[in-house]
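User: hey, got a sec? need Serine/threonine protein kinase folded
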Amino acid sequence: MAKQISFGTPVNDAERWAFSLLASELPENYILLTNVEIPTKSGQAMEVDALVIGEWGVYVVDVKGYIGRLDAGLHAWSLDGREVDNSLAKANYVARVLAGNVKHKIPVGVYAPWCQGMVFITGRKGEEIELEKQQGSLSIYTPKQIVAALTKEWGLTAPRSHQVTDEQKEMVLKTIGQVALVEQRNNKIQDFTKLKCLFIQSGLEVWQAEYNPGDWTAPWLLKILIPTQFTDQIQSQNHETQLRAEFKRLQALTGCSGVPYCAPLIQDGEQLVLPIRMPRGVPLNVLETESLTTYQLLEILRRSVSGLQQIHRRGFTVGGWTSNCVFVSDMGDVEFIDIKDTLNTGEDIQAYAQGFLALAEQTNQPRIYQWYQVAAKGGGGDLDALRCDLSALIDNGVCDTLPEKLEITVGAIVDHHYRLEQFIAATRHSQFWRARHIQGHYQCGISVYSKVESNWPTLSNLYRSLSKLHHPHVENVLAFGQLPQSEELFIARSWEYGVSLDELSDIQLGQPVMWFTQLLTGLQYMHQMDIYHGAICPKNIICNQEKAILVNFGIGLDIATSHYASRYADPKLWAAEGDAEKDLYGLVASFISTLAPVSLQGDGGQEGIIQALNSFDKQWFGEKTFDTCMKVLNFEFDVSQGTNYQEAFDVVECLV
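Assistant: Yep! Here you go:
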């Protein structure tokens, strides 16, 4: 992209289009002066459409918007059979004048650069033009060859070719005069000074700029729209609408982290300018992540997700997720400079996860990079949960190496979130603790299980599903994972006040049927989701005055088998039964064994539970309920798709 200095306004669309093409296609070391005047000895100035100071020479370019077939000779030109002016002769004359002016100003010992005339025939924006030159060496070119002619040696008409030096370029600019003042005028927009053009296309430009109202300066970006440079009015209006919409979005997002500040729109009659404060740091695609520590990576991720959350909460999405539009500062601040609001929230989260996945994987924190991996594939993602996890890892400390094995004791911190406060109970292979969520300052329960490595894949899928479902009579899973350097896993769940079913000291009238009905609704919901408990027993049912809750899905066998329920929770007994039938058997047996005297239960096995059921008054129990319970205990109750548990047990009216 050449450095363009505009001395005047283009007089027609052909000039406007030609200048835009030359500015965008010529190399960076080229200088393009447009609508500039060359002084003569008499003091009269001759206007030049474009003056190109290039690598091999200085070119006086005359722009013609001819459309049709141009037959160009050394002396005469014709366009579609009618005579037109020979523009090359005029351009060559001005080039000779310029060369003479430069020779008078150049110091002794320095050669003047080669100056020559050239004609650029644009056609209709590069189309609808056919050029026939009577002599191939004539410096007349269409858009297909103009850039090559200005940048290659073969475009010179000089007998010998010499590259133009920086000193020669300076002498040409001094000959023109006041170039610096014109450039300063062109680059000034109110208190903003344009420094470097980052993008230019049609009537859109993006500039790196400096804000200098007084004794201090600040870096900014200027998005500039020049309506007269668009091909048609509709295109210009569409881009103006987009720029104004971007301004409104940035104004609506003021105060959100991750959103750069923007100044009011500037409209001076010729252009519309949106100033945006230059984001701090470097684009994500050039960030040297290899030199960052785990803590720095986590901080970048935390600030990125915080900014994204705030944008979503105000009803917008980022949309512009190319890596060069996301900036990261030395302090870990993340800013999005292309907020388009073109995606829905789910698509925005997926695009965000894809953009930051590499950083997440570099943290070596499974809980973090697994979130990004799932979200990047369109699996959705809870931004609140991710931000909480990132905060916990940062606040409680992580190591770049593998963490040490955790000792389960009072004060131990599990998963960087939960501090163990009180031991509640234990079996041979499990412990249950009351814990406190460190960031949230609320009570929760932590279960720790050992020797479950063989069941890990099944349990992982089960508890990932449970964490996304909610039923008031099924444990609310907060977190699930494996403890470091061990074969133990943990489950964090909401703290439920109450005691296990077999530890109830006082059971009031109506409570058993209320609890039983509630648990049936929970079981039916879970079974519809293909989630099964597998070890329902009194120890896995927590009751209080208002409700009953099922806990320990899939891993409660050690709790079940450590009590008398082992006789009906024995997997060997259930080998031929379905998972749903097993859960219903455990639920019915748990309530029968709790309500019936131990003396009536025999050995507590299947026969003993059936014997205990028969001790109840069938009319009091409810005839249909009694019959269904008996079928369940005899494994004669088959669960099929669409089976309604409440209707089958005749407890619909008992639901509280």
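Quick note: The domain at 499-649 is CATH 1.10.510.10 (Transferase(Phosphotransferase); domain 1). Let me know if you need anything else on Serine/threonine protein kinase.
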